Amino acid sequence: MENFIAIIASVLFVIVSCKPKNQYIDSSIDVVDTVTVSFVDSVTVEKGEIVEETEEKPINIDSVLQANIDIDKELTSDSIYNAISPVGEYELYNGQVVAFTRLEKEGDIYAIVCPNVYSEEQAKIDFYMLQNKKWKYLHSSEVDNVVYFQSVDLNNDGISEIQSIGHFNMNGNCYNYFFGFSKAENKFYNGGYFFSSIYEFKPKESRIEVVYEGSWYMPFSQTIYYWKNHKLIPYKEVEVSLKIADMKHHAQYIKYSENLNLDKDSLELKFKKNYRGKKLNEFYDKFFENN
Length: 291
Known about the structure:
The chain contains four helices and 16 strands. The chain folds into two domains: about 60-195, no CATH class; about 205-290, no CATH class. It has about 290 residues and is mainly beta. Residues about 1-10 and about 10-50 have low confidence and may be disordered. Helices cover about 10% and strands about 40% of the residues.
C-alpha cells in the first residue's frame, strides 16, 4: 500500500513540475493547459433549423389536355410546342412532359405526353390525337428517359418525326429516341435510338451521322444511320478503343462494321485491327466524308 501511494505522489509531482511557470499569455488567444477526453457509445446532435424542400406535385394530365383543346389556333404550321417540361413554357422538373405538335402543315394535332414522375423504370410516352375538340388516346411506347420533345423531318418528305431527348450524363450524352407516324395505321412507331449529343441530320439523304465520345476508358465511335420505314437503321460504324483500359497501356484497336443492304437493324463486323498507321487514322478521321 505504501508503494502504491509513493507511485501516485511521484506522478503528481511530474505533472505539476511540467506546467510552465511565468509564461506570457497573449490575451487574444484562448489557451488551455488541460484536455479532457470522454469516450461515449452514443452521439447526440443538436437539431438545427429544418429547411423544408418544396416537392413538385404531379400535375393532372387530363386537365392539361382539356385546357389545350384550342391549341390548333397556335400551331399554325408543322411545329412542336413543349408546354410542360424542364425547358417548356411551364417549367416542371418532376419528370412529366407534355408537348403538342403538327407533323405537317395544316395537319392533325397530336399530344405527346410523359405522364409518370421520375423513377428507376423506363419512361412511358402516351400519344393522343385531337378530334372534334376531344383528345383521343392512340397508344403508348417506352423510352429510357425524357426531358423534352422536338420535331425533325428525317427524310425530307414534309412529315415530321418526333425526337425525344433524355437527360445528359456527365459526358454530355443522352438518349435520342425517334418516332415515325403511319397515317394508314394511325400509329407512332418507336424507330429506335442512339446515345449521343453529337449528331447531324441530313434529310435529303434520310441520313444521320452520329459521334459518340464518352469517358476515356470507353470506345469512341462514328455511326451512319438511315431512316427507313419508320426505323433507325445502322449502315456503317467505326470504333476505336483502348485494348486494356487501365491507365497503364496505350495500345488501341479499330473495329469496322457495316449493313450495306439496310435490310436489318444490326451491323456485321468486317475487321478488327491494331489502330496504328496513317491509313487507319484517315479511315477514322474521314469516316463520314468517305462513306
